[in-house]
Design a protein that fits this description.
This protein has about 170 residues and is α+β, with helices and mostly antiparallel strands. The chain folds into 2 domains: about 80 residues, Alpha-Beta Plaits (2-Layer Sandwich), CATH 3.30.70.260; about 80 residues, 2-Layer Sandwich (Alpha-Beta Plaits). Helices cover about 30% and strands about 40% of the residues. It has 4 helices and 8 strands; from the N terminus they run E-H-E-E-H-E-E-H-E-E-H-E.
């Protein structure tokens, strides 16, 4: 085991009941674990939700997190996705404002290269909807901020599912 900080991913199946999300996030805040991202939604079973959690921690802390999650009554199953082949995407919106006509054309080209959708356009603004990996969204943000002054970003966190084949993230 190492003490090196590393991004870790966990999928949790939990009972879909009021207060479960608060208990899970409370575990992270109470123990001062770094919770980078948490997304949650119902599964094919209405009484079960699946959470995708990202945390930046070392091996020892990660093992503690998994053990503490497994002890919670509301947690049905804990899956360590860190070294598992998964399909993972993050929803992100990028609004770029105060654009000239030629800058709007640049945004359309960037959207095409990054395979993002232009979902709204105003007289001097463009709104992109991005369903990319976290890394690819970070690259898009860096590019937009480098070339445009008024960039607003809203990120929804990643969701992941184990791969059927061996393809990875």
């Amino acid at each position: 085991m190492t003490s090196e900080l590393k991004d870790r991913w966990i999928a949790l199946y939990v009972e879909n009941e009021p207060g479960v999300l608060a208990k899970i996030s409370g575990l992270f805040s109470g123990k001062a674990y770094n919770l980078k991202s948490l997304t949650v939604g119902t599964t094919e079973e209405n009484d079960v939700s699946r959470m995708t959690i990202s945390s930046s921690c070392n091996d020892i802390t990660f093992e503690q997190i998994k053990k503490q999650l497994n002890r919670m009554v509301e947690v049905i199953k804990v899956i360590d996705l860190t070294d598992t082949p998964v399909h993972m995407k993050e929803l992100m919106y990028a609004k770029v404002r105060h654009l000239s006509d030629w800058e709007k054309e640049d945004i359309f080209r960037i959207a095409q290269v990054f395979s993002t959708d232009v979902v709204d356009i105003g007289e001097d603004s463009v709104l992109l909807e991005c369903k990319l990996t976290e890394r690819r969204n970070n690259e898009l943000i860096r590019l937009l901020k480098k070339h445009f002054k008024h960039v607003e970003i809203v990120r929804g966190g990643s969701v992941a599912i184990e791969s059927i084949s061996t393809s990875c993230r």
